[in-house]
Design a protein that fits this description.
Blueprint (H helix, E strand, L loop, with lengths): L4 H4 L4 E6 L3 H12 L4 E4 L8 H4 L4 E5 L23 E2 L21 H7 L8 E3 L4 E4 L2 E2 L4 H11 L3 E4 L3 E8 L2 E8 L3 E4 L1 E6 L5 H12 L18 E10 H12 L11 E7 L1 H7 L4 E8 L6 H11 L1 H10 L4 E11 L8 E8 L5 E7 L3 H20 L3 E5 L44 E3 L14 H21 L1
Parallel strand pairs: 1-2, 1-12, 2-8, 3-18, 12-20
Antiparallel strand pairs: 4-7, 5-6, 6-14, 9-10, 10-11, 13-16, 13-19, 14-15, 15-16, 17-18
Helix pairs in contact: 2-12, 4-12, 9-10
Bound molecules: flavin-adenine dinucleotide.
């Protein structure tokens, strides 16, 4: 049901969820199944509006590629209004530093795949002891298209658009009042408040709430350990088209939904053994074959034929006349969780008076080294299987000049943990030392692995729903 701001005041809600992206909507849908009435407060409108989007302006420094205002969307459905839809689960070993294991979110995978209309198939197969090929799924779900009408008709999910959570009042460890800005200033109460405002806004809001509520501990590292998945072309190659296709096809013939870039793409990840032995981060590497070369190699060989016919004939023979010049290796990979990479509050404010976000983001040497190691390993695989030759894209391994090509996955800032000095929420996503303030979304991730985050975000939302339902039943 869609409510106007004056109608909100007449109702009592057990749970107020801020944000109608995948995190907020998945949580509300699960509560609805148990007939628990909730309110979703959404800062944006039904569709894109310049006004709502203007709140996303922010300052960036370091290796971050883009202005913060263009990466996320403030509207019903959140950033799924322009997301890519690529999905994969996190790996078991991504949970090494978490207070929970992957088995804690596995039970919610089925339902999360249903929400995203994808098949639950994320297979992998080792191609040698260091590398494995992996399977993704592609979702075509836009949360607006799939869920707006449903929520409009729902008896249990209430939605208020153009309504911004602006502040909270705490008494002891409990949020006692929630301040909203809509057509006017409103204050409401709820048993539980959940922030599901996205991977930058969750930190921004909590930092702002702390400025106004001394009850939120100064020691919590709110905004720190912020991460992204760097995305970049990390290598190129030449090789024999037929041999490469045959080699990988034998391995992944039955895998579905590989990224369909170029003529042929295969997705490769490091095995746990390689991660442990080389002490590298996780990564998803996309090896794509193109019709045309990256560096005009075909023309260079043509030129060479005039000047050095013997040598160029040898090269052509080497590739059995199936010379393919266009192999591109791109990667979307894990980044170190570093304390100094952080969201903080800027001195400028948005139109409701909340300071804009300020992002400090630097890529670590270890992050770059991890990408480099993957190109090395793929190069070795190509040599051992006589598929061609791979070259590193040297420039990208320079920390100073590195700029990712994406900036889309916003991870950390309100990370989960048992130790309050290095985490903000506990394993149930409740802010430490508070009784009823929760955070939901990739901001709570301790590490990002390489998997696109939304499927895992939804798994965590469903797990949070279970926890809140248990708490409500206990009250
Ligand atoms: C270009 C692009 C491509 C992407 N592709 C993929 C992909 O292929 N696969 C993948 O897994 N992920 C992808 N992502 C990331 C994905 O979009 C996010 O992981 C996902 O949308 C996060 O969900 P969320 O609900 O946490 O936040 P969001 O979707 O950002 O939703 C947050 C909501 O909170 C609202 N809000 C914010 N502040 C307030 C406030 N103060 N009061 C009330 N409401 C508020 C916002 O208006 C917004 O609607 C992509 C992102 C981008 C930018």
């Amino acid at each position: 049901m869609i409510l106007k701001d004056n109608e909100i005041l007449k109702k009592n809600f057990q749970i107020v969820i801020c944000g109608s992206g995948p995190a907020g909507i998945s949580l509300a849908l699960e509560l609805e199944k148990k007939k628990i009435e909730c309110l979703i407060v959404e800062a944006g409108d039904e569709f894109y509006s310049e006004k709502a989007q203007s709140r996303y302006v922010g300052e960036v420094s370091g290796n971050f590629p883009e202005d913060l205002s263009v990466l996320r969307l403030s509207q019903f459905g959140g950033t799924t209004g322009h997301w890519g839809g690529t999905c994969r689960t996190l790996d078991n070993y991504d949970f090494q530093n978490w207070p929970i294991k992957k088995t804690e979110i596995d039970p919610f995978l089925d339902q999360s795949c249903k929400i995203l209309n994808i098949t639950k198939s994320f297979r992998e197969k080792n191609i040698n002891k260091n590398l494995k090929i992996i399977e993704f799924q592609e979702s075509e779900v836009r949360f607006y298209e799939k869920y707006f009408e449903h929520i409009k008709r729902s008896k249990f999910i209430n939605l208020c658009l153009n309504c911004i959570i602006f502040n909270i009042k705490m008494s002891g460890d409990t949020v006692t009042e929630i301040f909203l800005k809509s057509t006017k200033d409103i204050s409401i109460k709820a048993k539980f408040l959940v922030l599901a405002c996205g991977g930058i806004e969750n930190s921004r809001l909590l930092l702002w709430f702390r400025e106004n509520n001394k009850e939120i501990s100064k020691n919590l590292p709110i905004g720190n350990y912020w991460m992204e998945h760097p995305f970049k072309k990390i290598g190129t190659g030449v090789g024999n088209f037929n041999l490469i296709r045959k080699n990988f096809k034998n391995n992944f013939e039955k895998f579905e939904n590989f990224r369909n870039w170029g003529n042929f793409t295969v997705s490769i990840s490091p095995t746990k053994k390689l991660i442990d032995e080389k002490n590298i981060l996780n990564s998803g590497v996309f090896l794509t074959l193109h019709d045309r070369d990256n560096d005009n190699l075909k023309n260079n060989i043509k030129d060479l034929l005039c000047f050095a016919p013997n040598l160029s004939n040898k090269i052509i023979k080497l590739f059995n006349k199936n010379l393919l010049c266009g192999i591109t290796i791109s990667s979307s990979w894990e980044q170190d969780a570093i304390f100094s990479n952080k969201i903080s509050l800027s001195s400028s404010k948005d139109f409701v008076g909340i300071p804009h976000s300020k992002l400090k983001y630097e890529i670590s040497k270890n992050t770059l080294r991890s990408a480099e190691e993957m190109v090395n390993q793929i190069g070795i695989y190509f040599i051992n299987n006589d598929l061609g030759r791979i070259a590193k894209d040297q420039l990208i391994y320079n920390k100073e000049s590195f700029v990712s090509e994406a900036g889309y996955h916003h991870i950390g800032g309100t990370r989960m943990g048992d130790n309050k000095n290095i985490s903000v929420v506990d394993k149930n996503l409740k802010v430490h030392e508070t009784n009823n303030l929760y955070v939901c979304g990739s901001s709570t991730f301790v590490s990002g692995g390489h998997a696109n985050p939304t499927l895992s975000i939804i798994q965590f939302s469903l797990r949070l729903a279970k926890h809140l339902i248990e708490r409500i039943n206990y009250l």
